[in-house]
């Protein structure tokens, strides 16, 4: 986290905008062959996750990597990313908001 803070402090920006991808983990499907690893029993009924579960130690890494790949593939404007949060900046409000709109199309 400190690396992100230092990076932001190095920018000559007056405006910042953030994007938080809601329910990012739950929008990532688990491969069918992986689902048995996430099975659990509750009140005598067995369930399994079909989406990337919150609380699993690898979920943040997987989520971050997939979002990062989408942003890079889509040539998103200069930004910083931490898991499902994206921040863009600019010297003027309109520049910052334009970057935010462009970035949100890729995520």
UniProtKB/TrEMBL annotation:
Q: What class of enzyme is it?
A: hydrolase
Which InterPro entries does the record match to this protein? Answer: DNA/RNA_pol_sf (IPR043502), Rev_trsase/Diguanyl_cyclase (IPR043128), RT_dom (IPR000477), Viral_Replic_Matur_Polypro (IPR051320)
Q: Which PROSITE patterns match?
A: RT_POL
EC number, UniProt record: 3.1.26.4
What the record says about family reads:
Belongs to the beta type-B retroviral polymerase family. HERV class-II K(HML-2) pol subfamily.
Q: Please give the name of this protein.
A: ribonuclease H
Q: Where is the Reverse transcriptase domain?
A: 1-107
- Molecular function terms, GO-annotated: RNA-DNA hybrid ribonuclease activity
